[in-house]
Amino acid sequence: MATYVAPVPQITAHDAKRESKGWTSWITTTDHKKIGIMYMVTTFVFFCLGGVEALMLRLQLGAPNNTLVTPEIYNQLFTMHGTTMVFLFVVPMMAGLANYFVPLMIGARDMAFPRLNALSYWLLLAGGLVFYSSVFWNPPEAGWVSFIPLANSTYSPSGGEDAWIYLIHLTGLSSILGAINFYTTIANMRARGMSWGRLPLFIWTILTYSVLLIFALPVIAAAVTMLLTERHFGTHFFDPTEGGSPILWQHLFWFFGHPEVYIMVLPGFGVISEVLPVFARKPIFGYKAIAASTVAIAFLGFLTWAHHMFTAPIPEAILVFVMLSSYLIAVPTGVKILNWIATLWRGTVEFKTPLLFCAGAIAIFLIGGISGIFLATFPIDWQVNETYFVVAHLHFVLLGGAVLPIFAAIYYWFPKITGRMLSESLGRLSFGLIFLGVLTTFLIQHVIGLDGMPRRVYEYNDVGHLALYNAISTVGSFILAAGVIVTIVNFARSLKVGVVAGADPWGANTLEWFTPSPPPVNNFDVVPLVRSAEPMKDIRREIERRSTSGRSAGAATVPTGATQVGV
Amino acid sequence: MGHLLHSTFAFFTPLSGGSPNADHIDSLYKITLYIALVIFVAVEGGLMYALIKFRKRKGAVAAQIRGNTRLEMGWTVAAAVILVALAVLTFAKLGSIQNPPNSSPGGDELTGDSVAYASSERKLPPNGKSLSINVIGRQYIWQFVYPGADEPDGLGAPYSYEEMVVPTNTTVTLDIASADVVHSWWIPELGGKFQAVPGYHNYTWFKISKPGIYRGQCAILCGRGHARMIATVRAVPPAQFDEWLTNQKREITEANAAAKEARAKLNSQTGAGQVENP
């Protein structure tokens, strides 16, 4: 009798290549799972580097008029921190998760273009190495947004700025190739029966992430090329004395930079939409509304870039338009949050680590969303823009929208990737420290900003309670770091001694749990027919039905319609 | 209690109290804050409630609900209504934040040479009279150029660095520009910040009723000295301001004359080529 619980290989031995394990297998691989692991490990290393930079920034600001680092090093640190977290951690980490799970979740055997996929990874690594090699000479110091004219050759003559430009080019190329690959894979390689209305919500967000990257990246690629020619070949795109404009840079940068925010948070939203139903043991509330709001956010995300420029000399009509479009984007975002709460409502919520990180992510993202309303209101923005209020806002948005969901994803999918469970008690401890750390570090920063402290200053006078507030923030950043270290310990420990996970440890809904953990090279020997947005639930129900109604009923047929495909 | 509530929120509101535009931003901020707090408590409360109330218990069965179109439409519309209300509120407040009022009684008697021309970007008081000061950002100091040029192209105008002196009860309009990189003018108690961008002019205004010193600093990264690019505005009674301005102009003229003399002396001693006034 055919069974789909533990699929039997459908091919004869002489067709199967032995899976190679040596280090050369990693360098030469085109397997989406190995590439996915390399993405995730690499970006996690960059996350740790960016985190160390953040701790050094907070140490410098821990006391007023501190002299721990020079202004030069301080500027380099925040430039490296911002650039690393955006371009070398969040965006490629999402690409890593997508690499591993897009084919598995849609029932495909690999990405559409496996070799292009490998190229994407190696371009990312090259970008990271080029950028970090500047540490040995002159790191860039004009901020992750490279203010112009500050970043041109007159005011930033060192090569650090060029390292930044090459980083944008290399990681940008990596991302755009990856995006084309994801889009093609999702559009063409879904399992039989997986219509758009049955696509897992994480896949919806990766699809949207890919479209955003394809539209936004050419703009920043053009902009940094213009900066490069301005620095070395005497062009004047941004030079007002020759008819250029520094405002042009701000428009180009933020036309990319604002969609970039959604590029970072939408896949995080996708993770939340996958994890909540599994641990509430309830279907997602309003599948269509969540999928539609993802697309709506992406579209509106292209109309709001100038809200980063409210204090620049731009016409009032633009200020008004951008305020309203930024308000508008709060509607689909709010809808998502309410749908998530409704998903928990009347469920049976199991407090496993992935759920904790998702619930924490929603709680934190909401704070960032609300402070976003203040920043969208341009007269208020005139007071709080470019202060620690914005620093707090963007960290709540990105920690809640991207970083905590990434931790949720790691805890949720680690068993699938490694075949072993992470420790729940260490997971809970890690979540507790990270959540407490985020609140301690960043809530007080709203007040620091309201009290008049601008961003990107290496020292400040103890006016009011600024010394106390900054000390609180610094303590918080170390609590946050401790939480991350607990998770790293958890990884290392579980790889050796973690409980063996089995194919489907959570009783989850999507196809990646259909295959053994870790999945074989070909992912699936048989790909089941998809009949709803929760194929694994159907399969479990079918098994239950058959085991209770006796074996005679379904003899010799494969009711899920498993298709037999050779490798 | 009212006082306590007020002081609790003061901790969480922008600085204000120097100029009407800062005060209006503060009140717009506060109304937004009250609405935001209600949303914050409701949504975070709902999340906490759902997590605790519906935690896994023995015998509990999860309700298999897939959505509720009416409820979802309802909260979408509710979110939109809140945002429309905020937009209306902002437009209602916008005029008082953007448009400079006339000077108050007791302000400086502005004479003809301080006349500036209004444009779509540059707003002037209804009677057209304001003290117009050019603010120029450069690495890493602010320069302030006051009316009173000797020549039509603006040469010979009195100026000061780092500390701007202004008369009280007088509407001051600022024309903000940059000599090198992008800077951002910001004195929190006197209203919002505005970028100084090379090749562009940006405008704002303030009107101070209380004499005193108002502090701020450059608010956009402008290089290694960014943290030390500070600015102060010292508001003094109009008579004292006029006296200060006359004195400043005289001192600058004297210093220029002394420099010219020193250069001439140097030239005659060394016989080197003519050194131009830089």
Q: Can you summarize this structure?
A:
The complex is a heterodimer of chains A (567) and B (278). Chain A is an all-alpha fold and 567 residues long.
Characterise this structure.
- The complex is a heterodimer of chains A (567) and B (278).
- Chain A has 567 residues and is mostly helical.
- Chain A has one domain: Cytochrome C Oxidase, Chain A (Up-down Bundle), CATH 1.20.210.
- Helix content of chain A is 65%, strand content 1%.
- Chain B is an alpha+beta fold.
- In chain B, 38% of the residues lie in helices and 19% in strands.
- In chain B, the strands form three sheets. Chain B has a five-stranded mixed β-sheet. In chain B, strands 4-10-9 form a three-stranded mixed β-sheet.
- In chain B, strand 1 (131-138) and strand 2 (141-145) form a beta hairpin.
- In chain B, helix 2 runs antiparallel to helix 3.
- The chains are: A mainly alpha (567), B alpha+beta (278).
- Chains A and B meet through helix 3, helix 7, helix 8, helix 9 and helix 10 of A and helix 2, helix 3 and strand 9 of B.
Which terms summarize this structure?
heterodimer; A: 567 residues; mainly alpha; Cytochrome C Oxidase, Chain A; two-stranded antiparallel ribbon; B: 278 residues; alpha+beta; Immunoglobulin-like; five-stranded mixed sheet; three-stranded mixed sheet; 4 helices
Oligomer: heterodimer
Remind me, CATH topology of chain A?
Cytochrome C Oxidase, Chain A
Question: What count of helical segments of chain A does DSSP give?
Answer: 15
CATH architecture field of the largest domain in chain B = Sandwich
Estimated radius of gyration of chain A: 24 Å
- Globally, the shape of chain A reads globular
Q: Describe the biggest sheet of chain A?
A: 2 strands, antiparallel
CATH architecture descriptor name of chain A = Up-down Bundle
Uncertain segments of chain B are none
Please, what is the CATH homologous superfamily of chain A? Cytochrome c oxidase-like, subunit I domain
The helix fraction of chain B, in percent, is 25-40%
Largest sheet of chain B: 5 strands, mixed
Structural class of chain B: alpha+beta
Unreliable residue runs of chain A: 8-13, 552-567
Terminal Cα span of chain A: 22 Å
The residue-averaged pLDDT of chain B reads 89
> Strand fraction band of chain B?
15-25%
The number of strands of chain A is 2
Which strand order does the major sheet of chain A show? 1-2
Helical percent range of chain A? 55-70%
Overall outline of chain B: elongated
